[in-house]
Structure of Prefoldin subunit 2:
Amino acid sequence: MAGKAGGDLKEPMNEQAVANIYGAMRAELNQIYSKITELEMEVSEHSLVIGAIQPLDPSRRCYRMIGGVLVERTIKEVLPAVQRNKEGLEEVISRLNEALEKKKKDIAEFEAKYKIRIRKSDGEVKDENEKKEGSAQGVLVGPASTNE
């Protein structure tokens, strides 16, 4: 008992500490999900811009927002910059996806180590074999209009 108490200082001492650590891990996972979603939307916007200006004359004027300032450039100048930005965003998304997978693995190990089970809203305890990826997220919504 004395060896356990003094040996590993990283171990949480009670259920509340385990729950707090688990909650923080889940919050971090959700932050990664939301950042990936935000960046994917930016990539989509960049793709739309590239698709819109690519077929145009390279000497044509266009406007670009840089740091809150609208600047006038030519398509020849703007197109490569937008493409580089898009590639950079895609690289960041791939790194975030790697971090997401690592965090999922860490959470799964933490759940297994402390035998954490998520309770469903109706009071049932979810079996580990029935878990589905992302099942703790989202809201189930019925039809938009019901004629009853």
In short: The helical segments are 2-7, 15-53, 75-114. Strands lie at 61-66, 69-74.
